[in-house]
Structures are given as structure tokens and as C-alpha cells.
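Dear colleagues,

As part of the handover before I leave the project, I'm documenting each prediction I ran so the next person doesn't have to rerun anything. This entry is a single chain, and its sequence is reproduced below.
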Amino acid sequence: MNWAETRVVVTGGGGFLGSVVVQQLRERGCQDVFVPRSSEYDLRDRDAIVALYQRARPQIVLHLAAVVGGIGANRANPGRFFYDNAIMGIQLLEYARQFGVDKFVIAGTICAYPKLTPVPFKEEDLWNGYPEETNAPYGLAKKMLLVQAQAYRAQYGFNAIYPMLVNLYGPNDNFDLESSHVIPALIRKCVEAKQRGDRQIVLWGDGSPTREFLYVDDAAEGILLAAERYDDAEPVNLGSGEELAIRDLARIVAGHVGFDGDIVWDTSKPNGQPRRCLDVERAQRLFGFRAKRSLAEGLARTVAWYLAEPRMTPA
């Protein structure tokens, strides 16, 4: 693919993952990157999507826009998380087809997997059960875009691909405790507890669930490698292949921050999915993706960035 001669739309291009994708596109020589802003293009609205395609005339769409959050945000907003994510993707795909877009890349999610998927998660297990209840509306909304992509490929010959991402983290993540994912929430809680002199932090669940994490720069690289080299109907996992218990993650983050107080687990709160870890062989075999940054390196970079941000310091 010659990015220098390719018109690209990146939905969510101003967000956490999208901004890194846009940066890496420009490093690859892409001169024509259009990032629709929500103030001008409401991607839930048909007319806004039509106007976007008329203006940008993209050859490739990287659909990264999503309404996302941690367990608390998913429990509080199941209807919104389902509708917004489904309607954005469904209409963007349909009008991409109508406007002759050459390729459509959908950022899928590990939340689409069944709750009790055997570890490591293999792509062929995607339909063997219902997702974990707290994030099922979000996961299923994103999963329907895989169905749509495969249906459009079968009927129209439309080239849409579906890489599935694990939990991302890194600088510029969302550190709002009401809506953030586990790593930014842990970093903020530990930093603020240390600054206040608190002797404990309280975390949800019992710490036993496991998760897999992918540094945001690696995720962006995986998406662009898929865009460049992958053209098939089957979904592909993008992850690090490293599984870690939340209780161990909490201790590691506390160590990076220098918080030496107690970690208290609120077992009245949900754990979420019991285990998450991907089989990442397919991505490596089909388009050469392998995560470059270890969790230790990525966490060190993320904590250093957070500590360097004055706006992150509580009053």
C-alpha cells in the first residue's frame, strides 16, 4: 500500500488510540488523513456520514470511534453503549459501500468473546457463548459489525476487515475514575493516595480476574499492518499474549508510583470476565504483527507521562 497516495478517514482520530494511528500514518507518508470531529460530524446521524464521505472521498476508512469505558461505565450505560456503537458502525459501513471505499478496517473488541472462553482466546471460539454480562451490550454491538462486514463481503465483494483489540493503555489515556479502564484508574488512585498520604486504596472485585494489555503504540501498529497486508473475512486478535491477574497488576502499578499502602478489595463490586488472554498467532502469521513493548516498559512510560502532567495533580 502506498500511503502517500491514499485518502484515509480515521474515525475517532482525535482520541486515545486514533491520535496515535494518525501520527503513525503520517510517519508512513500519508498526506491525506481526514479526522471527522464529533462537533461537525455526528457519526450516529446518516446525513452527517453522507456529508463526511462526500467531503473526504476516502479510499480507506479506519473505524476507531467508539463509546467505551470500564465496568462501571458499562453497567451505567448499557443502552447507550449498544446503540451508539452499533449505529455508528452499521451506517459507516453501509455508506462506505455506497461511496466505493476500497477498504474498511473495524476496530473490534475482546469484549465480544464469550464469558467463559478457553484461554488463550482463539478466533474460532468467538461464537461459542454469550459475552460477560457487564459489557455484553458493548461487545455485541461491536460483534454485529463483524457479521455485517462478512455479509457485505459475501454479497458485494466489499473489503472490510476486523482486528480485535485487548485492553489498551498508554499516555493520553482516559484517567476519569467514572469511565476509565483498569490501568489508568489504578495509576490515578495510587498517585492521589500517595499525594494525600492515604494508607489504602479500594479496588473493585477480589483481584482474581486476569487481563491482557496492549500498549497503544503497538495497537496502532497492528491496525496499520492489518490495513496494509490483510484482506480476509475472518477476525484477527491483536494483543500481547501476556495474561496477568488484576491483583498482581495493582501491586506492579503501586510499585511504579511508589505507593506502599494497603490494597483493599471491595467484593461487593463485580469482577467482570474471569479471564482474558488472546492467542495472537494469527496476526503474526498473516500480517507480521507482534507486540514490541513489554507491560513493564509500557507501564513505566505511562506512569512517567501521568506524573509529568500538571493537570493530573489533584488540588
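The longest helix spans residues 78-98. The mean pLDDT is 94.

All the best with the project,
I.
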